[in-house]
Amino acid sequence: MAYFIGMTLALATTLFARRTGFDRDRAFYPTVVIVVASYYVLFAAMAGSPSTVMLESLVMAVFVVLAVMGFTSSPWLVMAALAGHGVFDAVHGAMIVNPGMPPWWPAFCGTYDLVAPAAFVLLRLSPAMESRQS
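The structure corresponding to this sequence follows.
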């Protein structure tokens, strides 16, 4: 179920952003990357684990830097950062023990993080959708 919800939410968010024009603002997807990366810090804080908060904050900082670099240079770097966070979701449990993280979170978040950039790329490469943005 977590995979289905992650996929559905990623598709809905991407289509909504395209339809409303939110994604015309270069800050939209970098903000998504930063917010997505912040959840592990939130889970660690909810568990009351200062050492995990610090570790998760360091990881989040990497994604914040990538989001900012992508914001200033290329949306493709932002999409790579979001997909990279999806890969991180897949290995997170083997790298960091976060007692506040729900057990379904990596499946949900990883799916979202991989489907959203794929949908972005498909929309970006679609001539019909791209002409609507002009």
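The chain is about 85% helix and 0% strand.
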